[in-house]
Batch of 3 targets.
Target 1
Amino acid sequence: MHTTAFLTTLLTTALAAPHNYARPTRDNGITVALISISPELQTQTVLRDGIVDKSPPVGSQGPYSQVSITVGPQASNKAIRCQLLDTAGTPIPARRNGNLDTTFADGDAGAWTFVTPDQLVSEIICDPSFKKAEPITPPTVNTTAPPSSSSPSDEIRVLLSNQATETGISFRLPNSGVREELEVKSTEMFKDVRIFSPAAVENSLRCQILDKAGDAVTAKRGENVDTTFSDGGKEEWGFVRPVMTTVGRIVCDPAFVKASA
């Protein structure tokens, strides 16, 4: 009799639970499929739509080489993007159809391939605030606006890469309006850098890459050769002096200015 009453109470409580806490399904959630060369490691994790939701991969951390995002037909946000973190908590970059990013959408365009294959994935994050890295339209911002006009939550993303070795690592610095520095502990050799700045400082904020000896790296984009690099809604800067190097520090400073022609 006591057991029956307990089970009845438990069932009533479960039925009364808010809808937001119900387990998501493939129809109303976001299915994140991690793909490996080994069939036994392939896994699917379903996260909730409309909120920031986080989860470790179902079953195993990998290693994986691709990720596919599928937004369910009943989900409200078809454009939601998801991010994967490695075991160090660093976003994992991936490519799809020429797009390089650290947040991934469905778009009915197939899987994203990791820049560095055989990645261990510690956490999956789906967040309505995640945005596509590439600008959708040419920048029209007022370049005289002070950096403080940006939201405090805005960040500067710096992507160091080497297409020859399919290596890419993304770093984040706060857009604080003052000089910010970040130590790079990686010993990978890089050949390119791309800056993703908040819209209010997209054309004005510049960053510098220092090698392990503390010397500034010179890079080129189009006809521009410089030791400080802006976003400007354009592609990556290619290293020229040296053409390939390890990186010791990233510095972003509102005081940096474009080199004179």
Target 2
Amino acid sequence: MLCGCGRDSEAKGGTADSALASDWELASFTVNGETTNAADMVPEVRKKAPGFTCSDGVNCVFSNNGKDHPGTVKEENGKYVIEFDDTDQDMICTIDGDTLTIVNSKGTVTTVFKKK
């Protein structure tokens, strides 16, 4: 399943059984080619590590550096688009089995989550 994050789409009805509506926990993140695995983080760093939740297949929250970024999942041309309330930055995410991968538009940050 492919999903993109942006602002030019229309909300569709979501469901709690949507692939995004799972409990996700951070597996790793890569910034400018340097990967950090969640298992290797010290507790102070872990508190501000990226997170993703989407309980109903429509409303989601991406958190990073201790700040929540709420958004809305929308469907556009067979893809899922996440429109964040506080940013215009585009992101692309894919779901493959039990793995959710989110990449920023510049390709400099990749965040990987696993289903809990």
Target 3
Amino acid sequence: MQTSSRFNRTHNTSLKMVGLLASFFVLQGCASIEEVPAWERGYLAKTGMQWEAFAREGRLAGHVYTSKEASSGGSKAAGGGCGCN
């Protein structure tokens, strides 16, 4: 019985060590952030790479949504729901 207890302890310790090493390597992958080169910044500034391709239309759609729902701030900010801005 004592042999199996010792085996479980060493097995648990080795599993913890493997988990710790795996976590370390995953975090190391997140730490290697590079600066975007100047010649690639133009691609990131294009309309297709933006969160909202057409900001004016997005604001208009949000205004229409809040007008129809009779509440303010339903999608982005907190509102009271009274319909006043």
